[in-house]
C-alpha cells in the first residue's frame, strides 16, 4: 500500500488479517530481505525447530553429565565396599597366640602346700562374660538367600553359646537404607555386636563359627 503527498512513515509494515480484524505488524527480515506471508511462516517454523533442537541437545548434555556423575558415585560406593571387605578380611585373619592372665583351665606349678600341679578354674572376668546379655543387629537384603543363611546361623550360634541371654534385631537395608549408611554398612549380610562394648562387625553368612566369634571378640565363649 502506497500513499503519495501525505506525511507518513516509510517504514515497511505488514498487514495481518485475523478474526480480530486488520492489524499492523513489524516486517520480518532475514538475511537482509523482508519476508512476508508463506515465506515468513516457513522461516519462523525453521527457527522454532532449530531452537527446539538446541533445547533437546542441552537436555541431552545434562542427562549425560548426570549419568557420568551417577557412574562416579557407583564407583565410589564400590571402593567403599571393597575397603569394608578388606577390613573384615583383616579382622577375620587369625592372630598369633599370646599368653593372657584370664585364660581358663591353665595348669600352673604346685604351691608350697601342694605336691601336684594345680588346675585353675575360670577367672572372675570370664564368669562375668558368661552372665552378660548380648545384643546383635543383623543387616539383610530382603529375602536374599545369603541373608536368610546368616540369620539361621546367628540363631544357631546364640542358642549354643548365648542361650537365653541374647537379643537379635534384623534390619532390611531395602526398607531402611539410611540406618545401614549411618552405621557404615555397605554390604550384606552384616552382623553388628552392639553390647557389650566394644562394638564389633562381621560380614557374610556366619557359617564358620570360630572366625565369627573371633571377629566379634567372643573367643572366650568357644572355650
Task: Please provide a written account of the structure.
- It is a single chain.
- With about 220 residues, this protein is α+β, with helices and mostly antiparallel strands.
- The protein has a domain at about 130-220: 3-Layer(aba) Sandwich (Glutaredoxin), CATH 3.40.30.10.
- The chain is about 40% helix and about 20% strand.
- The chain has helices at about 35-90, 125-130, 145-160, 175-180, 210-215, and strands spanning about 15-20, 20-25, 30, 35, 105-110, 120, 135-140, 165-170, 190-195, 200-205.
- A four-stranded mixed beta sheet has the order 8-7-9-10.
Element string (H = helix, E = strand) = EEEEHEEHEHEHEEH
Q: Please state how the strands of the largest beta sheet are arranged side by side.
A: 8-7-9-10
Radius of gyration: 39 Å
Which fold name is given in CATH as the topology of one domain? Glutaredoxin
Q: Tell me the total number of β-strands.
A: 10
Strand content: 15-25%
Low-confidence segments? 99-124
- Please give the largest β-sheet: 4 strands, mixed
